[in-house]
Protein: D-malate dehydrogenase (decarboxylating)
Amino acid sequence: MKTWKIAVIAGDGIGPEVIDEGIKVLNTAAEADGTFAFDYTYFPWGCEYYTKTGKMMDEDGIEKLKEFDAIYLGAVGFPGVPDHISLWDLLLRIRKSFDQYVNIRPVKLLDGAHLPLVDVDRKDVDMLFIRENSEGEYSGAGDWLFKGQPHEVVMQNGVFSRKGTERIIRYAFETAKKEGRSLTSISKANALNYSMVFWDQVFEEVSAEYPEVETASYLVDAAAMLMIKDPKRFEVVVTSNLFGDILTDLGAALAGGIGLAAGANINPERDFPSMFEPVHGSAPDIAGQGLANPLATIWSASQMLDFFGYENRGKNVLQAIEQLMVEGEVLTPDMKGSASTSEVGSRVAEIVGTLIANEKK
Ligand code: NAD
Ligand code: IPM
Ligand code: MN
Structure:
């Protein structure tokens, strides 16, 4: 039997609460399937670790993580540790060190999920965001000169390399081609007169290699408006690191809420482990009370199953999330229910078990 080695970084705030439920569901899927299993190693890294050790993760943390098949991450960040320290020393470090340059974030309205828009058909919210995840506005390059003096100067540089830009756009074209859907690029070349002019040029160049893929290109401000006014325009979407960050929180609000938004940080070459995590953060405002919605983290477990080649099982997990929401009986307060985080996880796991058992009959 194949055993997948998973590094678990539950992290801060609601991270550990939602990760427990994701693992419940992964284990049920594996047991019911019977051909594979998971072996978890927990790393206690995060803000609490930082207050004890002065580090968000071990010095050789990246070395330690290298041997795993995947990383399952809850969330990072907590009041008391500056966010730019907690996130750069852990989450962004992992994404960069493992060249997880593709961030896949579905913005798809599942059955039973709340649609906040009027005048929009449910089936019209079905996007797949492919966010550049290794450079761009998140290059980390810059400087802070004359700090604290009246003439201080801060620079935060966007870095768009030919390699980095081409590979994400090519990945998005391959995805659109495979799915038989259109590809939309979102940029901002009217104001960002180097980086986004370059982005648009590369999009045009790569587009010529994929005559079968229908394309569109929008400025990010208009795209934000159109995602609300006319979401069906967007099928597969490719965009930069920062725009992708912002637009996928907007997308979360469109597609059932932040408690349902999942993401996968992928190294497509599989030279390094990929990382699966919800889009949301550590939600300190609701942490430790069993209020957190675990569905985003469970959906990212479904993405992990897909990534390992168990697409049927990944689909079963999504079906279970949908069944749970259609039933509407076991939901957390953000979805207008009164169930706890762990009640939701247990119910999803139960449905997954039943779906797989029925399929095997
Ligand atoms: P957040 O996503 O943690 O929370 C925003 C709002 O959404 C809050 O009201 C919260 O209660 C709610 N929410 C989030 N997840 C929820 C869930 N699963 N169920 C129900 N409600 C949920 O964003 P924030 O408040 O801006 O950031 C909090 C901390 O998380 C900060 O330290 C930030 O840097 C960090 N952060 C981490 C990640 C990550 O680890 N991937 C992502 C985003 C933010
Ligand atoms: C996300 C988060 C991170 C990002 C932060 C916490 C660095 O907001 O995964 O969406 O901006 O990528
Ligand atoms: Mn974000």
User: Anything to note?
Assistant: Residues 245, 249, 279 surround manganese (II) ion (ligand 3) (CB under 6 Å).
